[in-house]
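note to self: dont lose this again. the chain is below, predicted strucutre after it. 318 aa total, dont forget to put it in the shared folder this time
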Amino acid sequence: MLQFLVRRFVGLLFVVLGVTFITFILGYLAPSDPIKEMMGAHFDSQTWLQLRHFYGFDLPWYEQYLHFLARLARFDLGTSFNPQQRAVWDILKDGVPISVELALWGTVVTLLLGIPIGIWSALKANTWVDTLLMSSALGLYALPAFVLIVFVQLLVLWLNYAGISWPVTGWGTAWQYSWSDIQYKLAPVLTYAAAGYGYYARLTRTTLLEVMRQDYIRTARAKGLQEWVVVSRHALRNAVIPLITVLGLVVGLLVTGSFFIETVFGIPGVARITVNSVFLRNYPVIQATTMLIAIGVVLGNLLADVLYCLVDPRIRVE
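---
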């Protein structure tokens, strides 16, 4: 088990290293001169040369990349173009806790909705309950993220029109859960969860139905065990293995969806900062946020590997 996790960790480190190179090279090959754009109408050739030296743009690309890696090793994300000469972390430090909170609660609610609904659907297979649950799950999963966000916002606006005061945009205070903060966070978290729960519901149903056809399940029933014992103690543990396997993939997809959620809901998180930095061509911030998102996805995959080892005894034996 330990060797498996070490191999996975080393492999994921190379993934992060690859992301750093792609992120750097895209910024390096950008057609415009960020220093000139930053200076705008106040362009001065002497100042331009000084700023190019300050940001290291007068060095060959491979030296710039090595300096980039050296800064990352010191947990230095660089210096922003806009605002000028401001540390990138100072721009991101307020957004990171908000994005982590959104992703955490969104993933938790996704699992709390998707897995029980998938189990219920499997136990009611080929009935009207199964058809209703899976049709709704497929419909939500098929909807593009921006359509789902607009639908949720229209629902919130309807609540306000009906006399129920509810915030349409914003997030409240990160990691605070007063009633006012919960009102701000509920709609984005439910939108986040709705985008992914359908996939987990359908996957849970499919895997559980497959496990329920196995010989050891028929043996457990023949021994006279109650159905809930058969499902909870024998079938569910084996059915959950494929769910853990795709956890990292789903986290990556939900991170992509969070760009729409943070932008439309006006949440000042990392995704919204990234979108604003793209419009401003603030490459140091874009590189930093891309790195943080990649690390988040990698950690999600590593967590999935750890859970996989704990649930599947075959990995522990190997």
